[in-house]
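Is this the right way to post structure tokens for a design question? Let me know if I should format differently. Anyway, here goes:
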């Protein structure tokens, strides 16, 4: 297994490309319309608020990754904070599932934009079929090795960040900064509640920075470059998101943004930039979503392999040849493909919000409770991150309970099942105590934890 983790195989630029690849693929393309539906005409500010919450959240990951960069970063953080317990294993599995959910979200977005580009209505069996096809392609790229992922991520990141930013600038130049809001948004819960709920989706648009955390042991000079890559990726995405949000809001009234919420950028491109702009935007969307799926599968498969090595989740070869990493790649694409088939974009995004924010709160709490002095973290920042996550999660759950109680129930049952499963599994197969990061982490700088 160790040979599958190639130290120094990913540069700082590779790491930034992966982080922006996941974030931009899901965030601005799949979620703009959904955020606008909840936040109303203030939806660009939801991205700003999401960035603020993410900045507090990222602080914990940067501090932990600087101390113990690991190939299974989230699992490492949780086991350092809680030990090999049900809480650590359950929260780590929630994170892995939220990443798989992100893959299905982006895969369906790819299919939606492709069909719009072909002049077809994005509905029926074609959307999940195309999405599953993209997931299979991403599997093949990942199976080819780290350099294939790194080089493709670099190329696609440059194309899409530059292209989508250019779309935002051109849209603002053509339409000016103005909004023709059809309503104030917020659904049945009011403007403030709707805005807070939209921030939960905006946070989901930034969560791709954890992809960098999960590849920590493979990044060159990881004690410094993991944190740098996280900060750079978030900063790039804030600029791109704001440019595009203002451009979309300037090109279309709110009711049209909401009506075209699964392909809002393509819909906004034509009135601002003409038919050529429409096709260029579709092409950029396809590049962005494809690279997002590739980067996400790269990270989650390694996280699952790490959790397997740590004896926190079961593993079966199912008769397949190869290493554990080869098998976790297959598990990842199978689960992502199933979600792509059975859930629409709105419900996929909702599941991602619930799983990710619950896991995020558990990480901040565990680090604040046991590790903040050891890693030199400021306690008030960790507690603020918990409070902000809790506020937006409560607002999102309340609005979803009013509009789609089934997805809230599915999320609650799913999370309960994850923790129950881990409790039973660890009860029958106690995980060994000791180093949380095993053979796939770099030694911590000035680490005194083993004294």
């Amino acid at each position: 297994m160790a040979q599958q983790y190639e130290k120094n195989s990913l540069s700082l630029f590779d790491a930034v490309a992966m982080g922006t690849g996941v974030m931009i693929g899901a965030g601005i393309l799949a979620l703009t319309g959904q955020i606008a539906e909840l936040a109303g005409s203030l939806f660009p500010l939801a991205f700003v608020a999401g960035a603020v919450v993410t900045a507090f959240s990222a602080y914990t990951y940067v501090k932990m990754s600087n101390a113990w960069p690991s190939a299974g970063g989230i699992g490492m953080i949780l086991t350092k904070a809680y030990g090999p317990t049900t809480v650590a294993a359950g929260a780590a599995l929630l994170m892995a599932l939220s990443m798989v959910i992100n893959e299905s979200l982006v895969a369906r977005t790819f299919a939606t934009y492709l069909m719009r580009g072909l002049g077809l209505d994005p509905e029926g069996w074609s959307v999940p079929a195309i999405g599953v096809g993209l997931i299979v392609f991403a599997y093949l790229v990942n199976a080819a090795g780290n350099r294939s992922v790194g080089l493709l991520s670099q190329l696609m990141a440059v194309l899409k960040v530059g292209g989508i930013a250019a779309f935002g600038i051109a849209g603002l130049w053509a339409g000016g900064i103005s909004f023709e809001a059809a309503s104030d948004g917020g659904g049945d819960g009011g403007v403030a509640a709707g805005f807070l709920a939209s921030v939960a989706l905006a946070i989901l648009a930034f969560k791709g920075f954890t992809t960098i955390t999960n590849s920590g042991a493979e990044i060159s000079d990881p004690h410094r470059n993991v944190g740098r890559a996280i900060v750079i990726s978030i900063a790039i995405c804030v600029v791109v998101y704001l440019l595009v949000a203002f451009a979309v809001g300037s090109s279309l009234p709110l009711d049209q943004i909401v009506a075209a919420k699964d392909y809002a950028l393509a819909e906004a491109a034509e009135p601002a930039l003409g038919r050529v702009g429409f096709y260029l935007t579709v092409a950029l969307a396809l590049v962005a979503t494809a690279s997002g799926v590739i980067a996400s599968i790269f990270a989650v498969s390694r996280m699952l392999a790490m959790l397997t090595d740590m004896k926190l989740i079961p593993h079966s070869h199912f008769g397949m040849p190869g290493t554990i990493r080869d098998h976790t790649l297959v598990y990842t694409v199978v689960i992502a493909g199933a979600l792509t088939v059975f859930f629409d974009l709105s419900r996929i995004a909702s599941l991602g919000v619930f799983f990710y924010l619950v896991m995020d709160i558990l990480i901040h709490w565990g680090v604040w409770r046991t590790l903040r002095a050891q890693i030199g973290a400021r306690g008030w920042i960790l507690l603020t991150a918990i409070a902000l996550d809790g506020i937006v999660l409560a607002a999102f759950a309340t609005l979803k309970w009013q509009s789609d109680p089934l997805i809230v129930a599915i999320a609650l049952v799913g999370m309960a099942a994850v923790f129950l499963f881990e409790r039973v599994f660890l009860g029958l197969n106690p995980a060994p105590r000791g180093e949380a990061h095993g053979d796939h982490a770099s030694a911590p700088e000035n680490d005194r934890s083993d004294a």
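Format looks fine. Someone answered above. Worth noting: Residues 180-188, 435-451 have pLDDT under 50 and may be disordered. The two ends are 28 Å apart (CA to CA).
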